[in-house]
Structures are given as C-alpha cells and as structure tokens.
Amino acid sequence: MPLINRSSSPIYWRIFSPDDRTRAFGIAPAYEGTLLAGAQAGIGYSASRFQLEIRDRQPLSLIPPSRVLVPAGPPGIVGELHRASDMLEYMGGSELRLTTQERVDVPGFLPSTHGFRFANQFPANTAHVSVRVGNVDMAIGDAANGLCGGMVYAVRDYFHAGMAIPSHKAGPVSGVLYDYLVARLYDSFDGLGWTEYLRLMSPGCSAGERARTAYFSALPGIESDLRNGAPSPIGLVQVNTDDPLKVGNNHQVLVYGLERNGRRLCLRIYDPNHPARDDITLDFDTGATPPLFSYSVPPGGDGRIYSFFSHRYQQRQPPAANQIPPWVDFPFPNALAEGANNIIVGNGWLGLLRIERVFGNRFNGTLYGQPMEGEWNPGTRAIHFTRFLGPGYEQRYTGVLELDPATRSLTGRMTGSFQEIHDGATGQSSYDWRAVPRLLVDGNGWQTELRLHRIDGDGSVAGEMYGDAVNGRWEQAAQRLHLTRRSADPNYAQEWTGRRTDGLTFAGDFQEIVGGVRQARQYRWMAFDGR
Predict the structure, then answer these.
(1) What is the rounded distance in angstroms from the CA atom of residue 343 to the CA atom of residue 353?
(2) Which H or E element spans position 499?
(3) Which is it for strands 2-5 and 87-92: parallel, antiparallel or unpaired?
(4) 143-157, 184-198, 333-347 — which one is most confidently predicted on average?
C-alpha cells in the first residue's frame, strides 16, 4: 500500500500493531522511513489492522525535537489495511487521507447476457391471478404495475442454476414463465421486503436511519454476496409517503459489481426496466447524511432514491427450458396494403377497416361495412379518411401511422381521432380510434397472431389464429369477444372468451373441448396490438 507525501516538507512515518502500547519503532524498510515532499513509499504490515504515526523528522532527533504531525492515538484507534491498491496520502498539517480502491464483480455476469431481453413492461390488466365468482372473472394484481422483483429473483435463479435465460423479447402475460415471474415477485416481498419498504419510505424515517440502513445494513450483505460469486438483489426506496398503496412505486434491482474509492461507492446494476444495459450504476458517498444517491438512469418514483436495503433471497429452481414456449417474432403486415383487414376500435366500437384498392398515396375500401376513402402522407405519416354512412352524414378520421423510435420503421399501428359531419356541419365532439392489421395473442404462453376477416353488424366474427380457423361473436354492450378455435382433429376444439380492457387489448381465458366435453381447466390468454 503506498504512502504519498502530498505536503511541501519531508516527513518520517512508522506503522505498527495497535496492541503495541509502547509505541515501539517500526521495522525498516516496510514499517518506517523518511519521505521527501512528493515522494512515496510502499508500506505494509502482517496484520490487517494497524496504527500509523507521522512526524516531521525521526523520533531520535533532539535538536530541534521531532514533532508528531499525525498521532497514532490510543491502541483502540486503528486503521484498516484493505489491499495493496489502497492509498494513504499525507496532505500536510494533521490531515491524512485513506483512499480505498477496490472492485468486486460477480465473475462472468453481465445484464446483456444473463438478464431478460424484455423490459419490465406489461399490458394493462395483466392479472396475477384470476378468480371466477359466478360468471365474473375477478383479477388480483396487475403486471402492468411491474414485475421487477420477480425478474430480479429469476435472473439470479437462472445464473445460479447455470441455465440460459429465456430469449423472449417481450414479457410473457400467461403460461409457465409468467407464473414463475409472478411467484418470484411475491417471494421478493416475503420476509423483510414489504416491511422494509414501508419503514424506509415513511416520512417519519429519518435521513440518518435511511443512511444507516444503506451503508451499514445493506452494504455488508451486498459485498458478501458479490465475494461469494452471487448477484445481490436490493430494494430501491423511491417514494416518501405513508401510503401503503404506493409500495409498488419503489423498485428492485440486482447488484453484480462494486467499486470503492475511499468513501465513494459505485454499484453496478441490472435494472429490469432497462434490458441489456451493462452501464447502469448507483453512486453515493458513505459519509453523506442525508444520503445522496446518483442513479445513471431516471429512477422513477418521486424522482430520487431515498435509501436501499438487501433482500432475503432464497434460491428457487427455474422452469425447465422445454416447459417454456419458444419466442416467435410476428412482424406487422402493411396496414395500407391492398387486401389488408385492419381491426379498428373507434369510440368503443369494434370493426374492420378494409383496404380494397391503393393508388399512389390514396386508398379506398370499407369501414364498419360502409364505403371509405382516404390518403396518407409518406413524409409526415399523417393519414386521413372518410366513412360515408348515408345522405348528409359522414365521419372524418385523422391520425398517424406510428413509428418505432428504436428501429425508425412503421409499427403497423394507426391512431387518431374522428368527428361526425351532418349536412356539412362538423360536430363538436371528437372520438379516439385505433387500428392494427392483426393482434398478438399469448395463450397460456404460446404466441400467435389473430387476424379477423369478418366482423358483421350482428356481431359475428371470423378469422384465424395458430393456423386454425376461428369464428364467434362480439358483444358490443359487454365489450366481450367469444371465439371458437377448430383444429384438424374433429374431436378437439377450444373456446376462448375475453373482454376488451383497453384500446385493442383483450384478456380472458380459454377451455379445451375434447370429444364434445368441455374440460374443467382454464388457461389465461391476452391479445394486444403491440409487443
């Protein structure tokens, strides 16, 4: 460990055991010596604890007598030698600075290779558990609020098990993987999780207590995990309130590395909100009260981090790879291609926007069964079309073709608003609409796309999914969709029922029909217009 003389005068130093009450001289050259201004020496001691004394000259100097600049102090006041990379700096006067430089990483772990590929984002009304009361499905919990704790625990599970993380690029909404993530979410709140959030997020919790929890309770556990080759899950307290319903506004992340430089620490983080990012860090000074935590990405919650704590993680075996349906990419078809049947919802009414003919930037077809014609601007992606309902009555739709900000390509989704026009007069009210060429379906974890070819005025619908024909009905008043999927096996079918929950998102359950007999088991499914 180097000792550097940053002052403008030479100094004499000696290092010895804290149990040496006689202050015996050190043993040259590793335990004592003289340092000129700006010079440095390598010092060492066989024990990890030491005392250091600095004088202006050797102790035997009598004329003038040597003067103690940095006293060693009583035997109980000691320094701690961490490793050879630590640094002691004499700054002049009586100031001695210890800079502890170290880095601890979990060997081989990186979020880009061991974290989930999808972000902690799930469609609205993705129920954790669905309970049927009579003919009504009661949802308990909503993954739209986040599954960060489940994702963090699962990533550590997979790493410990030596198993490859599932390759899904979007979060599952049903099936084995989804159920596993939800179960691990509840595991993460077990033990201290729930109570620690409530304690540390309360305005009654002092800044000193928040600092002590992070610096003296959480950090030792994190370091212990890392030195044992294990990523360490922690809870980030991101709200300052006594409202227990705001617990979900906090966050959970996984620490896989630590860098220390004196009192400053930098934790390297896997954050489920930011997949495949190896550059996310949490920086702070362990001497600061109130604690000031600097997060390298927007922290959420109240916009700051108040404290953090270690979770009492218990390992669980992840599901076997053959139990998890594989990931499948379903690129969007061209929404304005000839023959496209776009599923549209306008002011709560479900129907089809059919593109029958395209000429340049113009097109025509039908909307809800009535004639339609319009145009779009390739530069601005603006779209305009008119639905003709009868003499003197039409609806004018304006909107935009959505662009994926990451790929800068069209997503296939169209959104906008429409107004009614009676005898040339435009109504005051404006209604939202949304359209898409197909819906993505997750049925018990198996992905497919749902394309509808017909939605008639009486509510009857027809289309295809999983390569099989489907038909059924749409209940406008209840906003409920019923579909029957028929396979090549005449003795096997499936009955799907789901409610439109938001935009073009549907959620419900399905049952198998074997030999004409409805099976008791129910499977969850969701359909939505984007990943």
Answers:
(1) 6
(2) strand 492-502
(3) parallel
(4) 333-347
